[in-house]
Amino acid sequence: MRFDEAYSGNVFIASHPNYDDAQVVIYGMPMDFTVSYRPGSRFGPKRIREVSIGLEEYSPYLDRELKEVKYFDAGDIPLPFGNPEKSIKMISEFVGKILKDGKFPFGLGGEHLVTWPIIREMYKKYPDLVVFHFDAHADLRTDYEGEPLSHATPIRKVVELIGGKNVYQFGIRSGLKEEFEFAKENINFYPFEVLEPVKKVLPDVKGRPIYITIDIDVHDPAFAPGTGTLESGGITSKEMLATIQEISKAKLNIVGADIVEVAPIYDSADQTAILASKLIREMLLGFAFPLSE
C-alpha cells in the first residue's frame, strides 16, 4: 500500500502534497455493490473532489482557512467491482494503516456499508468509541433479503460490536417497524430532527472518542437529490451546517468521519456533490482541527 502519492489524479481542494506530515487522510471508497434501489454512489468521491474547486478556502462560519490545516487526499481505494467481501477487507486494511500512523481518517463513499469496516478498525484503537450517525434510514436490519452485507445493515453491525448505548442516531425517518422498535429500545435514538438533539447530547460525550458518519440523504431531496434512495421530509443544508458548527464549538474528541451515498448521476446541477464538499470543508476545519479555546 503506497501513501507517497494519491491513487487518482484529482484531489480535494487545497490538499497537502505529502502524506507523512499530514494530520488527516481523505480517501474514497467507490463501492455501490449492495444497494437496494439506485446504484451510482461509487462515482461520488470523484465528483465531490471535482466540484470542490468551486469552494472558497475560507469558512465564514468558523473563521478559518484550509491553508491553516494539513490533509492529504489519497484518492480512491481501488476496490474490486462487485466483490463486497474483498472491498470491506481492503477498506479495513487501509484505515488500519492510517490509524497506525496516528492520522485522522476522512472517508468519502460510496454506499453506507463502507462505514462498517471503518468503525470496526476505529473500535480496535478506541474501545470506548462513540458513533454519531446522521441518515434518513435506520440501517439497522440484520440482512436485506437474506444478505447480511448490505447498505441497510451497517449500523446494526456497529451496535452489535460497540453496544447500542454508544450509538447516537439523528434524522432517521425511514425503516422497518422492527428497526424503529429496536432503535427505541437499544440506541440513543433521535428520529426526524438533528440540530436540537445534537445540542442536547453533546455534554454526555465530552472527552470520549467520536466517529461521525453522514449519509447525504439525511437532507431533504430538495437539497440533495443526487443519492440512491430518496426520502422526503429531511433536514435542510443550513441545519446540517449549523449542527457541524455546534459540534465544532463543543471541542469534542472527534477521531474520524465519513460522508456517503452521493450519487452524482441523479443530479445534473451537482448541488448534492457541492453540498457534500462544503460539509467536508467545515468538518476538516471544525472536527479534525478543533477550534482553539
TrEMBL record:
Show the Gene3D superfamilies listed in the entry. Answer: Ureohydrolase domain
For this chain's record, the cofactor binding note is:
Binds 2 manganese ions per subunit.
Q: Name one GO molecular function term.
A: metal ion binding
Give GO BP annotations, semicolon-separated: putrescine biosynthetic process from arginine, via agmatine; spermidine biosynthetic process
Is Hydrolase among the key words of this record? yes
Organism of provenance = Vulcanibacillus modesticaldus
> What UniProt keywords apply to this chain's record, in alphabetical order?
Hydrolase, Manganese, Metal-binding, Polyamine biosynthesis, Putrescine biosynthesis, Spermidine biosynthesis
Instruction: State its cofactor.
Output: Mn(2+)
E.C. numbers: 3.5.3.11
Q: Which reaction does it catalyse?
A: agmatine + H2O = urea + putrescine
Which top-rank group of organisms is this from? Bacteria
What family classification does the UniProt entry report for this protein?
Answer: Belongs to the arginase family. Agmatinase subfamily.
Q: Which of this chain's residues are annotated to bind Mn(2+)? A: 112, 135, 137, 139, 215, 217
The family database entries (PROSITE patterns) matched by this protein are listed as: ARGINASE_1, ARGINASE_2
**What role is this protein assigned?**
Catalyzes the formation of putrescine from agmatine.
Q: Which residues cross the membrane?
A: none
What's the protein called, per UniProt?
Answer: Agmatinase
Asked if the keyword Metal-binding belongs to this entry, the reply reads: yes
